[in-house]
Design a protein that fits this description.
alpha/beta; Rossmann fold; Helix Hairpins; Heat Shock Protein 90; 3 domains; five-stranded parallel beta sheet; 12 strands
Length: 360
Amino acid sequence: MTQPATIVIVDDSPIARETLVDLLTDDAYQFSHAENGLALFKLLDSVDADVILLDVMMPGLDGYEVCRQLKSNPDWQHIPVILVTALDTREALIKGLDAGADEFLSKPIYGAVLRARVRSMLRIKQQYDALQKVLDLRENLAAMIVHDMRSPLSTIILYLELMLRRGTLPADEVTRTERLLSEARRLDTFINDMLLLTKMEEDKLLLHRRPSDLTELVATCVENCQELATARKVTLQVSLPAEPVKIDLDANLFSRTLDNLLNNAIRSSPALGTVTVKLATLTKQKPYQAQLEITDQGRSIPEEHWDDVFDKFSIASLKQKGVTRVGLPLAFAQMILQAHDGLIKVRNNEPQGTIFTVLV
């Protein structure tokens, strides 16, 4: 049996609340009540609302402010809000829509209009719930697949390392095996990034921030990527401050972010190309202390997609449009930088390539 939809009515007047219930009774809803915004916020911790009918003129927080707070909360922003007001002006309508209201109902309220608006908002909520179930299923399936991939991949890496360590392979087989090992480790990094992304999205990832030398982290990253650059015939040019750049950050996660960005730049660059890594301190540009630029000579990114390349949900559509410089490493980098109150952005290099800028 389908559970009746829950309508939450927020109004400081008991008579007004009962009037709305009477007008909606024929549609067999469940009702919950709150006399003001604070009572509503407390109520939503225990009630799954499908639609909120919110009066504008209330003491304390008015309906506009309550609506703004609802729409700024990730747990509540998906709930449709119908603002109910006696102010039948264009300014009131604009103010309500700017606050995030999904619908607007002016007094006096006609039952047929109220019922139609509520049914319309319920259809939107049902579509959202159905989509959310699909997304949750997809995320759970992806997480399960990633976990199941780790064990066989670890075995592959282990055996490849053993084959190389024994030193019995012919010279040409050594080169091929090293390439296989490199790609297997790359896939392992990709899987770990996916797991970390999931943890960050679920707010389960804790940063272990401590004073770290960003100069040393960048230098180590360049050293780690030198073998890949040599194999792909790409030259690394590095410019680092002479003095340490001390910043509070999670050195492990930040290093992985730098590795991802530099790997991306090297793999995107043509043979005999150059990748430039430049770290500089910022003395006047608060709130950031340092700026890192990674410049390559690979394919440029169309300006209209500069923001999209960091969005994991845009990866598939961008690749269909021919934008190849996308992938989970960039989404991972943005989430790690945001967790550090930092910023990552991209622009094109001239005459070809991109410049990824990290501010922290």
